[in-house]
Specification:
By secondary structure, this protein is α+β, with helices and mostly antiparallel strands. The chain has one domain: Roll (Pnp Oxidase, Chain A), CATH 2.30.110. It contains four helices and eight strands, in the order βαββββαββααβ.
Length: 149
């Protein structure tokens, strides 16, 4: 079963509700994929991470990235294994990643991420001082597409 293109509104809705995705970067040692929590805000995707590591090294080397979010909805079995199919949703985002250096923006993003993943919505807001212990990245979206089957 071939995938069907998702409309932009459906792609956006899927990106807003999905719980995690995978960021692909490229560096001196080659490609690297990192599973991440994230938040979509406007036409940008934000992540947080450690202050050092291969992901940041790669982005400093080449800030072109690809972000993938997918969900397998089920397997459709058939007596003929060649006719098995998978129900899924998948979104690919391409763009440029860079560090968020403004402390107010970092705090805002970290609180948006906390809000997204808090099951109750009750959490102590992140402070400027706390934001110094992590890096925040923004993916500026150049291209996005989605498929489903």
């Amino acid at each position: 079963m071939a995938g069907k293109e998702m409309a932009l509104a459906e792609v956006r809705g899927f990106l807003e509700q999905a719980q995690w995705g995978r960021l692909a970067t490229n560096g001196r040692q080659g490609p690297y994929v990192t599973p991440l929590h994230y938040v979509l805000e406007g036409d940008r995707i934000y992540f947080h991470c450690a202050l050092r590591g291969r992901k940041l090294d790669n982005i400093n080397y080449d800030n072109r990235v690809c972000f993938e979010v997918s969900e397998m909805l089920g397997i459709k079995e058939h007596a003929n294994p060649c006719k098995f199919s998978t129900s899924y949703k998948s979104v690919l985002v391409f763009g440029l990643a860079e560090l968020v250096n403004n402390s107010q923006d970092k705090v805002k993003v970290l609180n948006l991420i906390s809000q997204k993943y808090s099951s109750t919505g009750n959490f102590e807001p992140i402070t400027g001082e706390q934001s110094k212990s992590v890096a925040v990245l923004v993916l500026k979206i150049d291209e996005v597409s989605g498929k489903k089957a």
